[in-house]
Design brief:
The protein is mostly beta strands and about 350 residues long. Helices cover about 5% and strands about 45% of the residues. The protein has a domain of about 100 residues: Lipocalin, CATH 2.40.128. The longest helix has 10 residues. Its main location: cytoplasm.
Length: about 350
């Protein structure tokens, strides 16, 4: 479970100002969140191909932080618990959620576990297939491997693990990052490749076909600035985008000769990035500055929304739609946006 010190470390808050539980609660209240909502700080989301919405949340209160996973057939009804198709409370906070196949849900836990849940046949119940405590610290990120019953996790223990979900076991452990791993993301086209980024300032490309030297470093513009999140371009196999703790967004072709495109999009840490899936993808980002930004291929901002009242934590596009996306945040809001170029707050 999270401690207050671990929370401060992840979110770069001065621990000395939050040494006691009372001052921690004062910090939460200063972000305009009432105590009745403290159980559900929404931190991540993902649409399935049929438009079903998956949400992950944490309580961020009490001695041991708990979490929950929700599934909505009608995303517009989120986050009302009464309208969710299925949901479950977890014994520890949730840091990331991912769809696995059609009915599986992989959950990264702050207990150090990877949890795998599965929708029952009538899709009204989430059943636990396994909970495995293989990491020695908070699991910060999970990404399914394309075309396989496998996934990759990253953790604050600085390790990356490759899982065989069908066998409920870890098949490979990598210990290359020297500080906590912020994000891992698997290639959508090549099951052997994934990218990781960590608080050591490195973005690494991994190729599981190379057991002797699986990782290679991707040059970044600001090596002293911790990259926080990364995502693959849906159509260009060697192009990734990543954000950092200062609000910069970078798009880079790691096999090409052209320099990376870098732009300061936010005033604070970038928490999540997402490409749309249409033929000319747009790139969306959300940040601790509580805003959503949408950019074109040249990183020119075409849309900005500032409705979130607390950290904006997750963003996801509706599959096959070039102008509709959803964001979530610690303000317990699930906001659905229609992107209109050069417009603010069209939701």
């Amino acid at each position: 479970m999270f401690t207050v010190r671990q929370f401060c470390y992840i979110h770069m808050i001065n621990y000395d100002q939050l040494q006691c539980a009372d001052s921690f609660q004062e910090h939460l209240c200063s972000h305009n969140v009432e105590r009745k909502d403290l159980f559900e700080y929404i931190c991540c989301l993902l649409f399935s191909t049929d438009g079903t919405l998956l949400l992950g949340a944490s309580s961020l209160s009490g001695r041991n932080w708990q979490g929950s996973v929700w599934i909505y057939s009608e995303p517009e009804q989120a986050p009302s618990e009464g309208f969710c198709k299925a949901g479950v409370q977890t014994e520890a906070g949730v840091t990331d959620v991912q769809w696995v196949a059609e009915k599986g849900v992989a959950v990264a836990s702050d207990s150090g576990a990877l949890e795998l849940w599965e929708l029952a046949e009538d899709e009204r119940l989430l059943m636990n297939r396994f909970t495995k405590y293989e990491h020695d610290h908070i699991v910060t990120t999970v990404s399914p491997i394309t075309g396989e019953s496998s996934a990759v996790t990253g953790s604050m223990d600085c390790r990356i693990k490759v899982w065989d979900l069908s066998q409920e076991t870890v098949v490979t452990t990598y210990n290359v990052h020297t500080q906590p791993v912020n994000c891992v993301t698997c290639s959508p086209t090549d099951e052997s490749l994934f990218v990781s980024c960590g608080q050591d300032g490195r973005v690494l490309m991994w190729d599981r076909r190379k057991p002797d030297k699986p990782a290679s470093r991707i040059d970044v513009e600001f090596p002293s600035c911790s990259p926080t999140t990364a995502v693959w371009h849906p159509h260009q196999r060697s192009t990734i985008a990543f954000g950092d703790k200062l609000g910069n967004v970078t798009v880079k072709d790691f096999l090409g000769s052209e320099p990376a495109r870098v732009k300061k999009i936010h005033s604070r840490r970038v928490n999540s990035l997402a490409f749309s899936t249409n033929s000319v993808p747009l790139l969306a980002s959300v940040s601790d500055d509580c805003s959503l930004a949408v950019m074109n291929s040249d990183l020119q901002e075409i849309f900005r929304d500032r409705q979130h009242q607390d950290f904006a934590k997750g963003v996801c596009w509706l599959h096959g739609d070039s102008n509709r996306l959803t964001t979530v945040g610690w303000d317990h809001l699930v906001l659905h946006h229609t992107v209109t170029p050069n417009t603010e707050s069209s939701s």
